[in-house]
Every structure is written in structure tokens, then in C-alpha cells.
Design goal:
heterodimer; A: alpha/beta; 4-stranded antiparallel sheet; 23% strand; globular; B: mainly alpha; 14 helices
Chain lengths: 257, 322
């Protein structure tokens, strides 16, 4: 589904990502973990088109997407959410969802003059779809509230909802569990599992290890801009290099004593 | 009595010409956040293009094409749109400040061209004998002006309805999303540059339309009519009326134009003839004062409460459909 080959991103002299290669298979939930500053979010932003890579290739469904602007990557079927949610604050939840789908004929201004009937019809279908997704994410109650009035957790759900409105092939989730209360977290996990069952591929950055171990297989571990290892939950848990990266200790010395 | 009616008709025609410009600015600023401080430039392009295309034989400069009224109007709009493309394409990808600098630059350049490129614009003498549509069918001046006012009302309603449809549509929704968070809008597939350019060009086309109608109405244009003060007036109209509201732009245009001409008349009554020219400064002072009062007491203008309204409107629309 997604292939990253020898990807590097430098800011001035700093190598935020340093020659990373991995592949994400279709219909997996892949986790991306690593200590702060490991380069996870930079990797996300490079895949989503916010940054152009210094070197390397990104292939999505066999097509090169490195260096494309974010809106074009979205149109390929690769959609991202943000670490800190960014719903459109003065727009309602419904409007936030309805704005997303590509190819609405009402997005060409002249169609609103000359083909209002067609636009209205599409809007009706869009509204039905948005209501359905809002229901799925338990947002029906707040459908007509401006998103600036929602809680942080609900804003995360709106972001996931926006991603779903696009019928994506793959979603990049940046810390869906951060700052979310336990019951809402359980709900988000449940939704991810359901969507995965419907055939959507996920890559998620997460610090909540509980969530990562439960959801993700495989798990990619990054440290200092490089890919440290790839494996399932057990392999990651027992790998000394991962412990080393997170704690900054020297396990070999500990073992010797 | 007839004198008063003539005056009011004359006033309303000019106010509606300004209203079209304010509507163009409202699309650019009120709905898109584009800081255009070269409005007069697009207005001038419209006026000159129309005059060159529509006039019968001209001496000493380009013109004499004798195009029919509607076609010349269309030509003026297209030309303003092209100028907007030239300004917009390089600047709308950059930070906001660049558009402001570019628009003020283009407005000054256009005024200089009007004044100096005599073969094209007639230079300081300007262009005479600009035709008015269907003028032959009217014998009295007032009768014709009443017809012109009717035409202006028709055009104004057309522009207003067209804009309302645009901004209350999926297109307008994307525009709003881009204004609120461009990065997030990009992440859901919206090309901010393309939408900004569309809004900028359409706004400029309206300013060009306004310029063409102005030229046709007063029948004579010269470079002194296209000074930066006009840009200031249109901005004052939008801010007083309410940025982000099309109705507000129209109300603001009528109100500010009334204050402008009214204060000019009062100055003429009160001041002795030899200092009347200097008294014209009072107009700028009055508008400045009104602007400050508006910003103090109604910072969103008389009708500019769009943000909350947008949510309300959506709600009512939904309940209509359900």
C-alpha cells in the first residue's frame, strides 16, 4: 500500500529523518512509536506533503507521492489527522464533515448559478453521509454546534470523521489517544478496529503503549531519525534496543552487573 | 421638486456603482481575507477598456471600435479579470502582505499609464463621447437617468443574487474552511491558492464592471478620476456596512456615499468661495470619523454578523429539508 524508500528530511544541518525505509501492507494497523524528537511527526508531515523530502521516495499504491502538495496527496486516498486537532472552529460539525468530499459540483462556483438543482441533490446525499458518520462517531448530539465549542476529545473525533468523509484507502493518525479520557479512548480504539475491518489501512503515531500493543501489528520503532526496528508487540516489548532508545540507559552494562 | 428628484436619481446611480465595487471587495476581503488596496486600479481598467471598446471614432488615441454596450461591458470585465490574474498568480501563494503591496503598486501604475500613455488612454485629456445605452430613445435627461437607475438596480440585484448563491454554497463553504485554517483545508484536499485566485479575480471583475458603468454614465473619463481616495472610500463603505455581508456592502455604499456628497454640499453652503477647495478635506475627515465610530461601536459594521449567522442559516436550511 505504502512504500517509503531511503527517506531523509533535513532542516539546515539537522537530520530529522535519516534514511528510513519501510513498507506498509494493505489492511494493517501499523504503529509508529519512538521517544520525543525521534522524527515521527516529521515523517508523517513528509508523507502527507507538508514537507518535501531531502532525499528518497514515497510510493502510495505504486505511485510516487513525495513532494506533492497535501491536497494532491489527499486526492490519492491518503488522509491524515493532526496531533493537535484542527477542525474549522466557526463551522459546525456537520459543515466540517460536508466540506471534505472531493468532486462536489457545487465547488465550481458557476454550478451554483446554472445547476442549483444538481448541487442541492448532492448536498442532500452529502448530509445523509455526514449524519451517518457522525452517528458512527457518536457526534450526532453536537452535529449543529460550532466545533470551537466541543471538547478536545470530540474535536479528535471530528477529525477522524473528516478523514472518513473522504472514503480514504489509508489514514495517518497522529496521536489519536493523547489527552483523551479513558472511556473516549476505548471508543476511539473500537472505531479504529471497526474501520480496519471495513478495509481501511492505518498508520498511527501513539505514546499510549497500551493502545499501541493492543491495536498495532506491525509496530515501527524510530529513534534519532532512523528506523530502529520493526516487529509485533512481543518483539518490540522485548527488544533491548527499544528500551535503550526510550530510557537512554545502557542495557548491556546493566546485564553485566 | 424636479431638481431634488434629479439629484436623488443621480445620487442613487452613483451609489449603486459604488455598491458593485463594495460587493467585489466584500468577496475578496469579507469572505476570503484578501487585502486589496488597489481597488481603483481595477475600476480604472474597467472604465478605460469599456471606453476604448464602446466609443465611436476617436482622434489621437486607441478606440473607435463602436462595440455594442453589453459586449463592451463584457470586454471591460474580462480585462479587469486578466489584470487580477497577473497580480494574483504570483502573489496569492505568498504571505498576505505581498498581495497588498502588489495591488497598491498596480493601482499606481495604472493611473500613471492612464496619464502618460496617450496613444492608449488619451493621456490627461482622457476619453470623450463615451456612449450610453439606448440614449437615443430618451428626450429628457431625467427620463434617461431614471432608465439608467433602473438598469443599475437590475444589475445590482443580479450581482447580489449571484454572490449570495456563491457564498452560500459548497464553494463558499470551502472558502470559509480555507480562511479558518488553511493547513487543515489542505489536508482535506482543498487547493487554497485556486480558491483565493477565483475569489480575487471575480472580485476584480466586479470592480471592472463598476468602472465600465461609471464611464458610461458620466460619458467622460480622465486620469484624475482614478485617485487612491476611491480605494479608501470603498473600504470605508465595506467596513461601515459590515464586512462579510453582501447586504451590508450595499447599505454601506449608500450610507458612505451619502455622507461624502452630503458633507461636500454642506461645505459649499458654509464656506466662502475662496476657501471651498480646501474645505473638501472635511469630506475625508467626516468619513474618517465615521470609520472610527463604526470600529468603536460596531466593529463588525452595521450588518456584519456573518459568523453566527452562518451556523444559524445552516440549521434553518437543514430543518427546511428534513
Amino acid at each position: 500500500m505504502l512504500e517509503v524508500r531511503d527517506l531523509s528530511k533535513e532542516f539546515g544541518g539537522l537530520k530529522a529523518i535519516d534514511g528510513v525505509t519501510f513498507e506498509i501492507r494493505k489492511n494493517t494497523i501499523t504503529g509508529l512509536i519512538g521517544p520525543n524528537g525521534a522524527g515521527k511527526t516529521t515523517l508523517f508531515n513528509t508523507m502527507a506533503g507538508v514537507y518535501a523530502p531531502t532525499r528518497g521516495e514515497i510510493l502510495f499504491k505504486g505511485e510516487h507521492i513525495e513532494g506533492l502538495p497535501p491536497y494532491k496527496i489527499f486526492h490519492k486516498g491518503l488522509v491524515r489527522t493532526f496531533q493537535i486537532p484542527r477542525p474549522f472552529p466557526d463551522m459546525t460539525v456537520l459543515e466540517n464533515l460536508m466540506v471534505v468530499p472531493a468532486g462536489q459540483s457545487g465547488e465550481h462556483f458557476w454550478n451554483n448559478w446554472f445547476r442549483p438543482g444538481k448541487v442541492r441533490e448532492e448536498e442532500r446525499a452529502l448530509r445523509a453521509k455526514a449524519s451517518e458518520i457522525a452517528e458512527f462517531l457518536n457526534l450526532s448530539r453536537v452535529l449543529h454546534l460550532q466545533t470551537k465549542n466541543l471538547s478536545g476529545g470530540q474535536q479528535k473525533l471530528v477529525e477522524i470523521g473528516r478523514a472518513l468523509m473522504a472514503d480514504p484507502d489509508m489514514i495517518l493518525l497522529d496521536e489519536p489517544g493523547a489527552g483523551v479520557n479513558p472511556s473516549l479512548l476505548a471508543e476511539i480504539i473500537e472505531r479504529i478496529i471497526e474501520l480496519h475491518a471495513r478495509g481501511i489501512t492505518f498508520l498511527l503515531i501513539e505514546h499510549n503503549m497500551d493502545m499501541v500493543m493492543r491495536l498495532c501489528d506491525p509496530i515501527l520503532v524510530m529513534a534519532n531519525g532512523q528506523l530502529l526496528m520493526e516487529g509485533n508487540a512481543n518483539q518490540v516489548r522485548t527488544d533491548p534496543r527499544v528500551l535503550d532508545a526510550y530510557l537512554g540507559g545502557e542495557p548491556e552494562v546493566e546485564e553485566a552487573s | 421638486m424636479i431638481g431634488w428628484i434629479s439629484y436623488i436619481v443621480f445620487f442613487l446611480i452613483l451609489a449603486s456603482i459604488y455598491a458593485i465595487m463594495a460587493l467585489g471587495l466584500n468577496l475578496q476581503w469579507g469572505y476570503t481575507g484578501l487585502f486589496n488596496i488597489g481597488i481603483v486600479g481595477f475600476f480604472a481598467v474597467g472604465a478605460y477598456t469599456f471606453s476604448i471598446l464602446a466609443t465611436p471614432d476617436q482622434v489621437g488615441h486607441l478606440g473607435g471600435y463602436n462595440w455594442p454596450f453589453l459586449l463592451a461591458l463584457l470586454g471591460a470585465m474580462v480585462m479587469s479579470g486578466i489584470v487580477a490574474l497577473i497580480v494574483g498568480v504570483p502573489t496569492l501563494r505568498l504571505r498576505d502582505d505581498y498581495l497588498a503591496i502588489a495591488t497598491i503598486g498596480i493601482a499606481v501604475s495604472i493611473q500613471l499609464i492612464a496619464n502618460n500613455l496617450s496613444w492608449l488612454t488619451g493621456g490627461p485629456q482622457g476619453i470623450y463621447n463615451i456612449p450610453q445605452p439606448l440614449a437615443n430613445y430618451f428626450s429628457s435627461n431625467l427620463g434617461y437617468n431614471l432608465f439608467f437607475l433602473g438598469m443599475m438596480m437590475f444589475i445590482l440585484v443580479l450581482v447580489y443574487v449571484g454572490l449570495e448563491r456563491m457564498v452560500n454554497s459548497p464553494w463558499g463553504r470551502v472558502l470559509m474552511a480555507i480562511r479558518e485554517d488553511e493547513t487543515a483545508a489542505g489536508s482535506v484536499g482543498k487547493n487554497a491558492f485556486s480558491y483565493r485566485l477565483q475569489s480575487f479575480v471575480i472580485g476584480a471583475v466586479l470592480m471592472g464592471l463598476s468602472g465600465a458603468l461609471y464611464a458610461s454614465f458620466i460619458k467622460y473619463i480622465s486620469p484624475t478620476l482614478f485617485m487612491p481616495i476611491l480605494t479608501f472610500q470603498v473600504w470605508a463603505m465595506l467596513i461601515v456596512g459590515g464586512s462579510g455581508s453582501n447586504l451590508g456592502a450595499i447599505v454601506g455604499a449608500v450610507l458612505v456615499w451619502a455622507l461624502w456628497t452630503g458633507s461636500g454640499t454642506v461645505v459649499q453652503w458654509l464656506l466662502p468661495a475662496d476657501i471651498q477647495v480646501k474645505g473638501g478635506a472635511i469630506q475625508i475627515i467626516v468619513i474618517g470619523l465615521v470609520l472610527m465610530l463604526a470600529l468603536l461601536f460596531r466593529p463588525r459594521g452595521l450588518l456584519g454578523e456573518r459568523k453566527e449567522v452562518a451556523a444559524e442559516e445552516t440549521k434553518s436550511k437543514i430543518s427546511n429539508i428534513q
